[in-house]
Amino acid sequence: MKKIKIGLLGLGTVGTGVYKLIRMRSDVMERTIGAQLEIKKILVHNKNKKREGVDESLLTDNWKDILEDEEIQIVIEVIGGIEPAKTMILEALKAGKNVVSANKDLIAEEGRELLDTAQEYGKDFLFEAAVAGGIPIIRPLKQCLAGNEITDVLGIVNGTTNYILTKMFEEGMEFEDALRQAQKLGYAEADPTADVEGLDAGRKVAIMASIAFHSRVVFSDVYTEGITKITAADIAYAKEFDSVIKLLGVARNTESGIEVGVYPVMLPKDHPLASVRESFNAVFIHGDAVDDAMFYGRGAGEMPTASAVVGDVIDVARDLAYDCTGRISCTCYRQIPVKDFGEIENKFFLRMQVKNRPGVLAQIAQVFGGHKVSIARVVQKNVHLEKAELVIVTERVKERHMKDATEELKNMDSIYEISSVIREY
Amino acid sequence: MKKIKIGLLGLGTVGTGVYKLIRMRSDVMERTIGAQLEIKKILVHNKNKKREGVDESLLTDNWKDILEDEEIQIVIEVIGGIEPAKTMILEALKAGKNVVSANKDLIAEEGRELLDTAQEYGKDFLFEAAVAGGIPIIRPLKQCLAGNEITDVLGIVNGTTNYILTKMFEEGMEFEDALRQAQKLGYAEADPTADVEGLDAGRKVAIMASIAFHSRVVFSDVYTEGITKITAADIAYAKEFDSVIKLLGVARNTESGIEVGVYPVMLPKDHPLASVRESFNAVFIHGDAVDDAMFYGRGAGEMPTASAVVGDVIDVARDLAYDCTGRISCTCYRQIPVKDFGEIENKFFLRMQVKNRPGVLAQIAQVFGGHKVSIARVVQKNVHLEKAELVIVTERVKERHMKDATEELKNMDSIYEISSVIREY
């Protein structure tokens, strides 16, 4: 019986899931792809650590054991981070091995070099698991929707923040309490910065934008803003406006360039992304032929991520059987500039605490007018003797104009505080 | 410059969309797949019919013109129906051409023969457009999720009925009024039978079940029940129960065999399928590794369907470039029996008009008990002097037991009418 031998780099959460899933499916694979999948070696940092349910004879702490093993045709990289993952992937490709990776950090930074190397050596480099975990998104974009000009990619691609925002919305919790609950349940890490500040989502949106628009977008192109400033009061307003607040990765291909950012958005309740709850992820796209489409599922976790990795491994195995590795490589054949974020237009929701006296609204309106910001709606609430809460929703205005206007407002005597600035869909 | 020549069979709505989209994308294809796509000939019934925007020199009414043209490497079949589509596809494959089809009727009946022939001749036979129009679902199931044992496939795969049910739910319309509106807007045909009776959805669910469970399911295996009996009163109860009513294609792979059917279902509002509105489609799946996932988008229409067809064509073009056509063929390597529908267990919502007098409920409960139907909930409403409305929700019971119980209830003196029997999720 034919066997396809695999080297697994890393045995953390995802690596363990991949190990389990490949063993579970080893037999049926023979019938789907005509070969058994066999993990021959596993690269770990510490060979002596006790690992439940893992065949210890497969473990090695020497990368060369895998790189120089000519039987190994597929390398699965689930170490994460830039180095040593990058060097290992490049060496594996150059040694004639195909590579499957779940490494969003690396691909969002160095995807081009990895894909170019794979193409040069005629090998597969697949990374479905790097974006939105188990949800099929890379292959749909590269293959199923290849006949489209994709103009919009909107994604809830971070489960931690979606869990927190769901708790805030459904149970009226404040951010800090929801975060603590997420940490208790293992949805958030002890240091939650990468999640709650939108960095994790930013890496994923860079990868999706590159593939959707056929033009390289890297993480440093992505404006990121997290959810730490969102309060229960903002959520209450969102409800009043028949909306929800979601942390969205937003990428648009416009006539003046690519717009790309991650930030909280007030989204109408009937938008398909609005009903994505708990730690689920979803990616919404718009293409000129397909119209709107959305892909929903588990964006992280041991087995969902393993599902995406093993799907890629099976695809490589089919390419090996048909001698066509390298069949789908880099599809970034364009060079579209990424727009300066200040030039992007958005609608804004502003909530501020102001002095309760005549003429304040006129002053504020004048500041906005001076910065070319048109006001669509004003609501005054929570009026007290000295203080009132003012909510202003703008028309679509340039980010830089909005920023200048809020800077000026902050310095006004009649404004105690600008409590929140949230973009509207 | 390399050109890949295509023969297009049929120039109806989908055919015209495919023609337009391939021409729109002809140039960029050179950069993604290294070849231009060119429609060389189009098979039509009537060559002399006036067709806006179509190069008339491509039209032919003679199938042999395409079959015997050795330059044509890809045949796109968008005629629909069993014959002559089946014969043409088989002849094309045997003549060494690859085939892309959007023909759900044919694939739901004869998929095995077509796929086996493609495999025998080492050619691609792809049909992403045959299920859920523009939504990527076949390729995600066959590739991205190939590492999973899929246990559940639930689909809203008919836009006409979803539009009608949305109008009934959101605007309180009766079925007939919503149908008329759908017909006026072109969402429903003059003879809406195939849509409203669940036949169209039944074909799609047969195809999806086959792929998801790796075992052939044909249309005649699928129990179908439409939405013509759903009333505004049922919808009002659904709202009261925090649910919606959707026409679902349901396929499950259980230890005792495959369960497959199409019928209206009361679905809790927080299920991802519940928020699929208007004529949109969505397919929800559960796999042992990926957990829950859902694919949402346009299930029909000229350009969304063309999007799926052209995605397949581009995939064939890549296989041609790498000399690996036939790379993914039939994946039905199992033979799992399809269960008799009577043996399937479901929960039921029953609404009935009964005589308003003591002892009636006891009589009804006795009938249910005699047929092994456990009652979970009883609500009495709209009580008049002579008549009352009784709503009963059952526990999970066998379809045949439920059928026997309702037959007996129908003949009871104290029951005027069984107004509706709807399955609950």
TrEMBL record, chains A, B:
Catalyses which reaction(s): L-homoserine + NADP(+) = L-aspartate 4-semialdehyde + NADPH + H(+)
Q: Which positions fall inside the ACT domain?
A: 349-423
Offer an example of a GO molecular function term for this protein.
NADP binding
Top-rank EC class of the record's enzyme: oxidoreductase
Provide the binding site for NADP(+): 9-16
**What domain of life?**
Bacteria
The pathway entry for this protein reads as: Amino-acid biosynthesis; L-methionine biosynthesis via de novo pathway; L-homoserine from L-aspartate: step 3/3; Amino-acid biosynthesis; L-threonine biosynthesis; L-threonine from L-aspartate: step 3/5
UniProt binding sites for NADPH: 104
Q: Which UniProt keywords apply?
A: Amino-acid biosynthesis, Metal-binding, Methionine biosynthesis, NAD, NADP, Oxidoreductase, Sodium, Threonine biosynthesis
Cofactor(s) recorded in Swiss-Prot or TrEMBL: a metal cation
| This enzyme's EC code(s) | 1.1.1.3
Q: Which CDD domains match?
A: ACT_HSDH-Hom (cd04881)
Asked whether the keyword Metal-binding is assigned, the reply is yes
Q: Where is the active site?
A: 204
Q: Which Pfam families match?
A: ACT, Homoserine_dh, NAD_binding_3
Q: Which GO terms describe its biological process?
A: methionine biosynthetic process; threonine biosynthetic process
Record: residues binding L-homoserine: 189
Say which family it is in. Belongs to the homoserine dehydrogenase family.
Which PANTHER family does the entry link to? HOMOSERINE DEHYDROGENASE (PTHR43331:SF1)
Q: What is this protein called?
A: Homoserine dehydrogenase
